[in-house]
Every structure is written in structure tokens, then in C-alpha cells.
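Input/output pair, single chain:
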Amino acid sequence: MRMMVLLLSVMMVNVLLMDAMVESTAEFDPYKVLGVTRSASQAEIKKVYKRLAKEWHPDKNKNPEAEDMFIKITKSYEILTNEEKRASYDRYGQTDNTHPYGRGHHGFRHFHDNFYFDESFFHFPFNNKGGRDFADSKYTLHFNQYISEVVPDSFKRPYLIKITSDWCFSCIHIEPVWKETVQELETLGIGIGVVDVGYERRLANHLGAHQTPSFLGVVNGKVAFFHYAVVKGHLMQFVEDLLPQRLVEKVTDKNNQEFLKSWHELNKPHVLLFDQVPSVPLLYKLTAFAYKDYVQFGYVDQGLSETADLLRKFNINTYAPTMLVFKEDVEKPADIIQAKGMKKQIIDEFISNNKFLLAPRLVNQKLFDELCPVKQFHRRRKYCVLLITGEEESFATGNEAFLSLASANTNDVLRFAYVYQRRQQPLCDVLLKNKDSTLPQVDQVVILERRNGAGKILYKPVSGGWNGSKEDKHKLLEELERLQKDPSILNNDAVLPELNNEFTSMFLIRWIYTAYDYLAEIIDDLLHNNWREVMPLLSLIFSALFILFGTVVIQAFSDSSEEKQPKTKAKEASKAENGSPNTSSTSSSRPPKKNFVEVTELTDITYTSNLVKLRPGHINVVLVLTDPTKNILLSKFAKEVYSFTGSFTLHFSFLNVDKHGEWMAAVLEYAQDAMQIDTDEDEAGSRKLDYTGYVLALNGHKKYLCLFKPVYTGEDLDSKPEEEGGGSRSRKGTTRSRSTTLQIHHKLDRLGLWMERLMEGTLPRYYVPAWPGLDKITVNK
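Output:
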């Protein structure tokens, strides 16, 4: 019972779907869409189509239904302009394109009358694997096939790929357009591919295709998406836009000589196509793309008055397209072809037979491999007649004589070529190993045969050199005749190095063109809101900008470099000799540049430059002293800070507190918590504070200071018991003087450790609202 209910349910759903599709098909009438009668002529249909297509084009008409209407108009025009499709519609009311699912007109038409169904009854009208169009099966792509075949081949011809899937309703409607487009593009040599998302998810993700149906093109390994209404004209234009710009040059009477004479610089034959259409035909662009490495292409529009002289000069028949190929002779074409319906096979054969000049210059290894292929079989043996010459004007006569000899050659086993010795010096050194390696006064001709791909050759230099005389020509022809009878005359062997690529300098220009095409593609994606494909690129750009901006901000607002010195830098350099034994033996990682310490006095003259306007990140280390202690403290100060003089951000000064005591007191008011010194002696404020031996690290830009207070670590001579009882007064005076001197000397014993903490940025900082002036001098009392 349940199976019966399920069967009836499936049947009803299928009937409803089929009725809906039949009704939608019945509603479509190409005559009504175009507004013409059934007896309308082709001229009337074409005229109406142009008017309606212009009116309903989605780019000009903002009506939401414009795109659907434009598709109907195009579809109607395609039916009514095709005699076979029009006759089928007039007779049966439908064509293969208008019939639902593209099947015959039997089946369900009889379902209601006879209530029967065949095996196609349960075959739903979707693009499933079993019902996939057989024509598309030969275009199906797999991931490995795409990587190994399509991508390399896309450098010779573009590919148009359709993205489809099972249960894709929209794919059914575009199928007729796709078939007709593929049929025309294949005749032009364009690659076709179909990717089923359901079975090739990996390839679809690789291509960036996330919706069905969609179309994309592949050229030079790059992927571009189709964004317009699916009609044949748009797809054809899309494929044409895939091709790089500047493939074909427009040639007129003014620039034809410049175009043809560039054969020497480009080392390529030049081909001219004469036709009456104003734009370059797609077939010719595709040919230019396929042979861009071998031939330079130009196009002559016969309808322009600026090309009349060219037509008369080469006696061009204006009733059929004509193709001329020019080699070294720019006045006379080397070959010509003329046909009213020029096919791809004819053009390919014509270009393949004229890929090289009569005597091309060997500019890279690829050209050498093709001109002088490796010997494989006895019957396919090829000999290369190579002229080693120079670029100077003095070699022109010999080069022209060699070219005339190459022009007269009709033997297919002989290939003529030349090299510039200065540009291919390694190659010439091997072939001329018995001669002077400098540029020869006369040219040299070498006959060679390649034996394997590793560079091994058999060769024979033609004796006597080459200057283009009749004797030289006769001698060379005799050698070539002997070679045909006895190949063993090539009695020298060598291994040739790989040729230099003389066109490497053009890489920058090609890179600029590639970047321009890539930028145009990005702009096109942005204009069509193809955000899914563009999002990774935008994310990368914004990430790079964020990192760059963040780096600038961090550098602008970070602390000075001396505050960020790592601890390892402060522990690598050793202390100067004679330093305090209690201090660390490491300091700045930079070794001192001088064998002395430069210490300047801080006065009202140097005050501004050494403190107030000190550069950001720089610190001035100031020793406070008096006139009596000046020599002792400066000597000790120099020893303690010597190992830090390699830092570019440290400056060293001293301040005479006898002259600037008021300034010292004003600055230290902001470091009251550090000034808890001599409390036993100055509780009542009866005695002036002793600043001798203090060291200040002053950051003039950020207005803060770090304070070093002297700590006595030496031996206290006053505490020693006197050896002689009583002692004289003069003896006590001498001992007290020595004790005072030693105590002053030891005030800076811990300065080295304090400097290390300064470089590490771990010292407490005392900020000053504004630096006090140093113009007042304290009067000594």
C-alpha cells in the first residue's frame, strides 16, 4: 500500500512539473515576442530585432525584467532567422530549443489520453549524470586533466568552460545557446570544457566557481569569469576579450615600412592580413596568440583610404581576404595566401611553414632547438650552417652575402642561421676553440649537426673564414655538397653550452603588460560585484595596509630606543679595565668606537643643544661635581661609562654644582622620594646638601630624569685604630685628607650597574614639567 502511495505521489509531481514546463513553452511565441507576422521577411525580422535589442539591453534598460526580455528577444531572433528552426516551429509549434528538456515531442503528450508511461517517465528533466547531454561528455574536465593539459595549452589558445551540476534548472534554459556557441568556437580552435560541480568539487573550488550555471575563461593560466546575459554574442565577445591586447598591430600607408623593417630587431617574420572588415577578425587574433613567439602580425583594413597605397603596391584583391608573409625582404612577400572562406587549418599550415626567417639569429636555446633539432633517424638528419659574425657595420657585407645564399637554398635538410659573437660568447668559444677568442676580423662559418639533447655536436669550420666573396660562396657550396655524400666530414665534436637569452631585457616590459591586464581584470571583477572571487585579494591588500600603518604608528609612539634595549645587549660587552670589582662585567653590545670618553661641560651655552633640544630617543648622562673633586670624579666617571660609549643615543656631560646649585635643587624637587639622603645630618636643614658624585640621566625630549646617588663602598680609614697612641695633630690631618680623597673616588663604584639598568629601561623615572633655566650662577660662599 505504501509503495502504491509513493508511486502515485511521484507520478503526480512529475505530471505537475511537465505540465508547468509545457505551459511555459506554449506561452513562448517568437512571433509575438518580436511583434512580427508569420509571413515577415528576414529583413523585417532583422530590423525589428535591432530595435528591440537596443531598447531592452540590460546595460541600458534598468527595468528588472529587461534581462529576461532581452534573452527572449535574442532567442526569438535565433529561431526565426534559422530556416530549419522556423519551419519546425511553424509546423509543430516548437523546436529542439523550445521543447522542454530538449527531448522528442512524444512521451507525455499522450499521457493523459492513454495513461501509459515508458522508461523515460521517471527520468526527471534535470542535468543528472544519466541524462547528461552526450555532446558535453567529451568536454568534461577533471582536476588532473585541467592542471596537466588545459593550463599549459591556455598559453596557446583560450578556453571557455561551463560550470554545471545535477538538478540545475537554469542550465536547461541556456543549453541551446551553449551548444550553438560551442559549435562555432570549436571551428576557431578555442578549447571547450565542462565542469560538473557535483563530481569535480575540487576543480570547481580551484577555479573559484561557486554557483551554477556559470561560465569562465582561461588564458595564460589565468581565470576570468563571465558576467553578462547568456547569449551567443556575449559569449563570443567574452572569449575575444580574454586575449591579450597588442597582439595585432593596425598597419596603414604611414607605418607599414616601420612595421616590416622591425624584422631585424624582433628576429621574426611579419604577416599582414588584408580584409574589408574594420575590426580584426577573431580567427586572426587567435592565430596571432598561438604564434606570438614566432611571428609578428599586422592587419590592414581595405576600407580605409589610408591603406590605398598598400593595396596598389602588393596588388591585393579586395574581394577575398589575403595574407602576406614578409621575411628579410620587406619589398616582396615570401609567401601569399588568398581565400574567400579562410579556415583555421589553412592559416595554421601557412604560418607553420613560415615560422622562421631565411637566416634567423640564434637568440635563445628554444629557437636553436627548433631550427637545428637533434638527430633522431637517419632520414631526418638536419644540418645547421652557422655564421659567427659581429654587430659592427664592417660585417654587413658578409652578412648580406650569407643571407643571399640562404635565400637560394631549397634543401630542406639545411638550415641557415647566424649568431653575434659578443652576445653568445660561450657558444662561440667552443666552436672557435682553435682561434683567438676576440672578435674576428672576418666572419666564420661552421657546419654542425646536433647529436643529443645534452649539447653534443659534430661540426666542421669552413676554412678561410667568410667575407662574402664569390670564392667564399663557392667554397661553402662545395662543402655542403660533400656533406650530402659523406657526413663523416664533420670530424670535430664538442658539447655546446646553453645559449644566452638575448630578449631577457624585455622581461620588464612584459611584466608591466601582465600587471596591466591583471589590474584590468580586478577592476572588472569589482564593477560586477564578483566579491567571492575578489575577497581573498582584497583581504590581502587590507592586511598589508594594516601592517604597514600599524608599523608606522608603533614607531611614532614607541618609547626611545634606549628604553627598548634588550637585556642581552646590556650583558654582552665587557666593562672597561680598572672598573669596580663589584660591578657587572657586561654592558652595551656595541663596542666603543674611541679609546677615550668625550665629556662636555653643561653650561648656559650648551644647555639648549645638550638637553632642551636633545633629539628624541637620546639621553644625556650628567655627572655632578665641584671644583675640588673635578679631576678625581671625571677620571672615575670615564672608567665606569667607557664601555657604553658605543651607543649612538648616549651623551656624557658634567655639571659644576658650585656654579649651578640652584638649577640642581630645582630639578631634584621633582625627585623628592629619591632624596632621602643625609637625614641624620640635615634633619633641621642646618647644612646644605652635598650633590657631589650624583649622576643624572636626562631625556630632554620626554622631560624625565633618572637619578644615581653615590654609595660609598671603599675602606673607611677614619674607623681604623691608630697604631700609635695619641699621635700628633699633623698626622691626623694627613690621614683625614687621604680618607676624604678615597671616599670621593669610591662614590661612583656602583655607576656601572646603574648604567646597565638605564640601558634596560628598568630605572624609575621622574618627570619634569619644564626644564629650569641655567642662566643663573650660584655665588660661592
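The radius of gyration is 46 Å. The chain is about 40% helix and 15% strand.
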